[in-house]
Design a protein that fits this description.
Oligomer: single chain
Order of helices and strands: HHHHHHHHHHHHHHHHHHHHHHH
Helix content: over 70%
Number of helices: 23
Length: about 525
Amino acid sequence: MSFFAKINARQQMGIAALIMGFSVLISRFMGLFRDKVISWQFGASGETDLYFAAFILPDFLNYLLAGGYVSITLIPLLSKLMEKDTEDAWKFFSTVFCWATGVVVLLSLILWIFAPYIVPFLAPGFEHAQLLRLTDFLRIILPAQICFLPGACFTALLYIRKQFTIPALVPLIYNGMILLCGVSFPYLGIAEGMEGFCWGVLLGAFLGSLYLPYLAAKAGGIRLSFHWKHVCLKRFLYLALPLMIGQSVVVLDEQFIRIFGSMAGTGEVSLLSYARRIMMVPVGVVAQAAGVASFPFLAGLFAKNDMESFCETLQRALKNTLVIVLPVTLYMIAAAKPTLGFIFEGGQFGMAETLSAAPYLQLMLLAVPFWCIQQILGRSFYAMENTVTPAVVGTVVTIAIVPFYLYCSPRFGGMAVAFLTSSSIVLYALALCFAGRKFFQKAYQGILCLLLKNVLCNCIPFLLCLAAGYCLEAWLQGKMPLLWVQGIEICLGGVVFLFSYLLAAKLFLPENITLLLSPFLRRLKRQV
């Protein structure tokens, strides 16, 4: 009997969330270290703008084919078939795999051929010479999409088997290869400038996103054959089609930063991307992990038509996530400037770039709790096999926000882009909550009150952390290296925030302390 079979569903979901959260945490730090290497070598320059812009078309292709949602659409259907008829389930899996692989290969080839004619529309603010080099970067990165979509099919199979370890390794290998190739290829004379990082994307996609999940799926038993027809394929397309057609602001957020950042001035794409990278750390570690881990359990409860337990699970995921992410968000807003400086300053990235990017990061961090809400609510809709509602809501918000990007980006620069990207996520999360009121009414009970209480509880720690940072910076400035000052400011600010938060929570929200300490208390109890 497996370890997961010996514990209850709530503990399974918690362990899965812990595994995925730890993976995302390490992956985000690897991403930050990668960006540190990039900023050290190239700063916020035209070369880095080209690298970040080279992902616009490949990412759009991935979104168009619902590559990020293959597991979401495949898991519910494949799970039901596995329970009824294993042989038929493998035929359905093979059908989806063959179509997914065939389509992504064909589209990638077409885009690769016509890349020189497409890139002027991707970065309207770039000059001709930049567009030529952007084409070279794009043609290296684009074939990586051939690995992502088939690999997502294997990953979905691992999720069904409750095997979270291998999927947790995928982003680590992907980021590791980008770092390795980005640093070693120029040294070996294989590539120049940012080109080595582009080759790392391709190799990381093959090894991490495709080959490793395939080996894991094969070890657990897989029956892959050539099938192009299955009765459930229509249902799969019905679930996936809204995700393909509907271009939600969530999946296009990073692309908007790259596209409209190119209209804001040289280096703005890089500064906005560096700030977004830090902002996505709490989103990935808390929200994405909670959403990914809860999805199979929510899908199982919906399949059993147990909506009461479904809403209880959803409510618990929302409450726990908000309790954790709110103090993290406010602390990161208070420590935005020293964090950016500590991570990125050095080489070609100086104090001027830190001062420019810090307000961008603070504006983006304001939307982190809403990122968490939409991550969990979106997967709740998907667990109910309802992909239409999130796609429609996200597309409407996208259409509404684009005119503001077009008007504000060239006039008000990076600040406008940062403000609009946060505003769009807030608007989408609120609209999704409104759209789900008839499905998740019970799950919403007490959420708004909890949110307000936690915001108030975190205000004093936020102000104390902010004051401590300013005082410490003024006192230590010029007395020791700037990197040390920034590191001390981050650590001391964290200590001040933590202790003041624990005191405020003990007085006003003692249930928060119970939630945060419960994993450690359970472990201690088992040992005793």
